[in-house]
C-alpha cells in the first residue's frame, strides 16, 4: 500500500514545487499576446504546471471508489486550480473579470487563444504595410533607422512570412535617405552579393566617414582660440611704412580678431567691402525711387483661388491634435443628431466663436473596412473642415502614430485606418459616402435653369452642360433642347448679300456718244 500511495503523492508533488529564479511575467493588458503567451508558458513549465493547459479532466469510472483513484483526481484538480489561477493572476484586472468564469486551465487557455490569436490575424497586413511605407530620413542616423527596419523584418519573420537574405539587403539599400543617393547607386552596381551584416558594416563605416567630414568642414573649426594680428595702417588713408620699421611686425596693443562678416560687394565671407579685391559694384542709391515711381504705373490684381461657400464643405475628415472635440459641418453625415436648444458656442483658437447647432454620432467607414464611430460630435455648420480630435482618440485607447507624412490609427494592436498629409494637415482615408440630395432649396433667391448656366459658362452647348451635371460639378436640372439662345442665334447669323447690279463686260459698253448737239 505504501508503493500505491506514492502515486498520488508524486502527481501532487509538482504543486508544491517553487522556483525562485524564474521571474513572473508582466500582466497582460491586451497587447503583444504572443510575447506574453510564451513567457507565461515558460513560467508554468518551471512550475511543472504547463501540462494542465492541454490535459482533459480525469473522471472516475462508475462504481470506482478506491482511495488511489480518488486521490489522483483530487491531486489533478488541485494542480489545475493552481495553473488556472496562475494564468488569471497574469491578466490585468479588466481582463480578469472577463475570463474568470472558465472552470479549468485548458478552457481558460483556449479562450485566450481564440480571442487574441484571431485579432492578431490582421497583424500580417499591418506589418507588411509598415515595411512598405518605411522611409529613411536625412535628419536621423542611418544605422538607427536600419535597426528599426530590422525590427520590422524580425516581426515579419515571426509571423511566418519568410524573406530571403538578398531581398532584405536590396530593400535596405532602396530605403536609404536621399542624401545617400551616390552611395546607394554604388551599392546597387556591386556584383558581389552581401548579407545583412556586411551591409550594416559598410553603412556604419560610411556614416562615420560622413560625420568626420562634417566635423572637419564645420565653420571656424580650425580657428578656435586663434588670435590674428590686425593691420594698424589703412591702405586707403596712409601708406604702409617702409624700411626698418616695416620689419618689426605689429606693435603692442594692435591685436584684433579677423572680420567674420559678409562682404557687401561680392557677398563673400571673411572680409569687408573696403578690402574686397573684386571690381566694385555700381552705385544704386536711386534704385528705390525708380522702383517706387514705376510701381504706380503697374496694374495689380489678385485672384481668389479658394472660395468658402456655405453648403459646399468637403466631406473629408482631418485629425487635429489641438482640437478638444470632434466637429462636423455636414448635417447629412450624422447617424444620430440631437438639436441644441441653449445656443451654445464653440470657441476657436483666435477667440472667434461659432454656433453649435446640435450634437450626435458620426460613423466613418475607413478604407481598411473598419468603422470608426465618433460620439458626441458637434454640429457646426460654418466650420470649413471636419475635425477628429486626436486627444479624444488617445483618451479612448487609440494609438496615433505620425511618421513620414502619414498617420496610422490603431487600437490594442489592431489596425484601424491611416491618412496622409494634405495642405499641411493630416487627412484620414475615409471611404466616400454618397450625399443625400436636398430636394428643397433653402434659398429663395437661387433659381437653377439651363439658360442661366448656359450663359454663365460662356454659351457652351447643352451636351457640355449635361456632362458637367453627370460629374456633379453643377446642380441637376432639366434641359429643354427646343429652346434657342437669342445671343447664340444672333452671333451665328451670316451677313445678308448685297443687291445685284449689272456690270458692263462687253466691248464699247462704257462709250457714251452725245448725238443731240451735232
TrEMBL record:
GO terms, molecular function: nucleic acid binding; zinc ion binding
Domain of life per record: Eukaryota
Biased composition (Low complexity): 1-14
Pfam families xref list: gag_pre-integrs, Pol_BBD, Retrotran_gag_2, zf-CCHC
Span of domain CCHC-type: 262-278
InterPro entries: GAG-pre-integrase_dom, PolX-like_BBD, Znf_CCHC, Znf_CCHC_sf
Location of the region described as Disordered in the Swiss-Prot/TrEMBL record: 1-21, 229-249
Record's keyword terms, sorted: Metal-binding, Zinc, Zinc-finger
SUPFAM superfamilies per the UniProt record, alphabetical: Retrovirus zinc finger-like domains
Name the record gives this protein: CCHC-type domain-containing protein
Naturally occurring in which organism (per UniProt): Dorcoceras hygrometricum
Amino acid at each position: 500500500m505504501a508503493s500505491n500511495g506514492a502515486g498520488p503523492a508524486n502527481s501532487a508533488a509538482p504543486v508544491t514545487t517553487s522556483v525562485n529564479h524564474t521571474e513572473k511575467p508582466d500582466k497582460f493588458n491586451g497587447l503583444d499576446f504572443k510575447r506574453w503567451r510564451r513567457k507565461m508558458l515558460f513560467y508554468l513549465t518551471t512550475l511543472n504546471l504547463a501540462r494542465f493547459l492541454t490535459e482533459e479532466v480525469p473522471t472516475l469510472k462508475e462504481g470506482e471508489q478506491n482511495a488511489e483513484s480518488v486521490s489522483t483526481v483530487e491531486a489533478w484538480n488541485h494542480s489545475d486550480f493552481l495553473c488556472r489561477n496562475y494564468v488569471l493572476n497574469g491578466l490585468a484586472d479588466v481582463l480578469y473579470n472577463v475570463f474568470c468564469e472558465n472552470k479549468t486551465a485548458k478552457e481558460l487557455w483556449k479562450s485566450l487563444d481564440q480571442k487574441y490569436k484571431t485579432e492578431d490575424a490582421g497583424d500580417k497586413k499591418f506589418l507588411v504595410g509598415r515595411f512598405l511605407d518605411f522611409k529613411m530620413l536625412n535628419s536621423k542616423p542611418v544605422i538607427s533607422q536600419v535597426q528599426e527596419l530590422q525590427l520590422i523584418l524580425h516581426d515579419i519573420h515571426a509571423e511566418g512570412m519568410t524573406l530571403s537574405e538578398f531581398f532584405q539587403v536590396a530593400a535596405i539599400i532602396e530605403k536609404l535617405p536621399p542624401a545617400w543617393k551616390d552611395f546607394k547607386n554604388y551599392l546597387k552596381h556591386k556584383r558581389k552579393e552581401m548579407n545583412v551584416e556586411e551591409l550594416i558594416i559598410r553603412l556604419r563605416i560610411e556614416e562615420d566617414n560622413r560625420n568626420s567630414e562634417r566635423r572637419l568642414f564645420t565653420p571656424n573649426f580650425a580657428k578656435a582660440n586663434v588670435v590674428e594680428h590686425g593691420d594698424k595702417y589703412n591702405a586707403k588713408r596712409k601708406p604702409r611704412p617702409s624700411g626698418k620699421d616695416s620689419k618689426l611686425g605689429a606693435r603692442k596693443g594692435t591685436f584684433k580678431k579677423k572680420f567674420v562678416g559678409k562682404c557687401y560687394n561680392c557677398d563673400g565671407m571673411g572680409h569687408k567691402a573696403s578690402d574686397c579685391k573684386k571690381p566694385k559694384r555700381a552705385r544704386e542709391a536711386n534704385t528705390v525711387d525708380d522702383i517706387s515711381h514705376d510701381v504706380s504705373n503697374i496694374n495689380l490684381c489678385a485672384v481668389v483661388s479658394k472660395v468658402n461657400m456655405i453648403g459646399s464643405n468637403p466631406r473629408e475628415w482631418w485629425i487635429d491634435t489641438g482640437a478638444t472635440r470632434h466637429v462636423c459641418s455636414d448635417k447629412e453625415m450624422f447617424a444620430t443628431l440631437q438639436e441644441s436648444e441653449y445656443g451654445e458656442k464653440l470657441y476657436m483658437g483666435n477667440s472667434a466663436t461659432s454656433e453649435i447647432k446640435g450634437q450626435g454620432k458620426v460613423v466613418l467607414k475607413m478604407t481598411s473596412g473598419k468603422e470608426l464611430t465618433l460620439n458626441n460630435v458637434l454640429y457646426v455648420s460654418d466650420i470649413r473642415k471636419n475635425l477628429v480630435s486626436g486627444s479624444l482618440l488617445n483618451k479612448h485607447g487609440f494609438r496615433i502614430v505620425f511618421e513620414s507624412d502619414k498617420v496610422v490609427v490603431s487600437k490594442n494592436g489592431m489596425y484601424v485606418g491611416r491618412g496622409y498629409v494634405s495642405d499641411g494637415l493630416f487627412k484620414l482615408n475615409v471611404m466616400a459616402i454618397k450625399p443625400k440630395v436636398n430636394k428643397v432649396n433653402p434659398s429663395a433667391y437661387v433659381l437653377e435653369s439651363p439658360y442661366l448656366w448656359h450663359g454663365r459658362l460662356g454659351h457652351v452647348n447643352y451636351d457640355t452642360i449635361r456632362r458637367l451635371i453627370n460629374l456633379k460639378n453643377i446642380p441637376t436640372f432639366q434641359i429643354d433642347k427646343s429652346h434657342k439662345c437669342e445671343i447664340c442665334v444672333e452671333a451665328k447669323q451670316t451677313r445678308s448679300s448685297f443687291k445685284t447690279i449689272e456690270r458692263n463686260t462687253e466691248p464699247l459698253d462704257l462709250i457714251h456718244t452725245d448725238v443731240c448737239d451735232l
